[in-house]
Design a protein that fits this description.
single chain, TIM Barrel, 29% helix, binds pyridoxal-5'-phosphate
Length: 385
């Protein structure tokens, strides 16, 4: 038996699909019913919030269409994602252009398409918005600590609080609707307590602006809600509870409207990747570990294994037989294409070339991270069922 815990078992639907015929690997299969179930868990866990699915997690057309049918709204990072959402049936007024770094031509295009909700975190971006999306609703992203996040988002996004106050005042002066504040506490955030810090910072910005007669209407709670990979994570309910407690504490009398932007928590557990063992080898005659090379790696969709940040759960067709420590790597000729060497993974000792290996909870941040033709390998194939 492999030592690591697997995630929630793949659904019967996914098992049937893989068993039904031979598939060339690697292949990512997405169960749309799991997308829907995850949407419902989050929606009912936090009914007061408007759910904007973070499209970049998995923009496959059937995923977007299913979410449109469920009444989801969408957080888009580019004009291309906006167009994808519209093609999938989303109303432009249900799309937020959430990237703080946008080309002028893309802002103009989004605005013409009917998008009227935009993120920013700098004076330069605000100027673009005032000129190319006049009268739109804008929200300012503030910096947050990404402590507790397995996939932190760095200082690339957001500004300090005093600057947010100045910028929102400017937004108002420029004829935009100074609408709200957003933050992102870091992706795969394992500590529900992180929203407290972010919300207390948000409350400060709200009160400073109120002193200047600007009443903000909205808080965007961002994404960050984790998926269950190899290690246990708190349930969504715990995040909802922690956030509710912080909202009561900081916004008791005057509750603004809420946006929430889950990506990973909607898409990850819906996907299972089927891969194949290309080689099992050792580096020395008396080696204490084997190297298992799969036909998918860092460049085939598993980019989030960088620095072994996201620890996926693997299953093999030989699970149950005696196992030993392995390093796991991808098939390309790039030295970086190693998934796990420090993290202790175990796989069956009788694992052999051609055996199938399944990687669970790979529905988010995989297919879109796969390279086009690196070393001649095709990008990851995706099939939605
Ligand atoms: C990526 C992103 C999200 C989604 O984050 P998850 O950790 O996948 O939930 C939400 N909002 C913004 C602005 C993002 O960039």
């Amino acid at each position: 038996m492999t030592s690591q815990k697997t995630t929630q078992d793949p659904t019967a639907k996914i098992k049937r699909f893989f068993a039904s015929s031979q598939h060339s690997t690697p292949l990512l299969v997405i169960d749309l019913d799991v997308i829907a179930a995850n949407f419902e868990v989050i929606k009912s866990g936090m009914p007061a919030a408007d759910l904007f699915y973070a499209v970049k997690a998995n923009p496959a057309r059937p995923v977007l269409e299913r979410l449109v049918a469920l009444g989801s709204k969408f957080d888009a990072a580019s004009v291309f994602e906006i167009e994808d959402c519209i093609l999938a049936g989303a109303k432009p007024s249900d799309i937020s252009f959430g990237n703080t770094i946008k080309k002028p031509a893309d802002i103009e295009r989004a605005f013409k398409l009917g998008v009227d909700l935009f993120a920013f975190d700098s004076a330069g971006e605000l100027e673009k918005l005032a000129k190319l999306a006049p009268g739109s609703k804008v929200f300012c992203r503030i910096l947050t600590e990404n402590a507790g996040a397995d996939w932190p988002l760095s200082r690339k996004f957001g500004c300090e609080l005093d600057m947010a106050v100045e910028l929102m005042e400017q937004a108002h002066a420029l004829g935009l609707v100074a609408y709200g504040i957003s933050f992102h506490v870091g992706s795969q955030q394992t500590d529900p307590g992180q929203w407290e810090t972010a919300l207390s910072r948000t409350a400060w910005v709200f009160s400073e602006l109120k002193k200047r007669s600007i009443e903000l209407a909205m808080i965007n709670l961002g994404g960050g809600y984790p998926a269950h990979y190899r290690d246990d994570v708190p349930d969504f309910e715990e995040y909802a509870k922690a956030i509710e407690a912080s909202l009561c504490k900081h916004f008791s009398d005057n509750r603004p409207s809420l946006m929430i932007e889950p990506g990973r928590a909607i898409a990850a557990s819906a996907g299972v990747m089927q891969t194949e063992v290309v080689l099992v080898s050792e580096k020395r005659l008396d080696a204490d570990r084997r190297w298992v090379f799969l036909d998918v790696g860092m460049f085939g969709g598993l980019a989030e294994t960088m620095d072994e940040a996201i620890k996926y759960a693997f299953r093999t067709e030989k699970d149950g037989s005696p196992s030993g420590i392995v390093a796991i790597a991808g098939p390309t000729c790039d030295g970086m294409d190693v998934l796990y060497e420090q993290t202790a993974y175990k796989m069956p000792l009788d694992l052999a070339v051609g055996d199938l290996v399944w990687i669970d909870a790979t529905g988010a941040y995989t297919a879109t991270y796969s390279a086009v033709g690196f070393n001649g390998f095709d990008p990851l194939k995706v099939h939605c069922i």
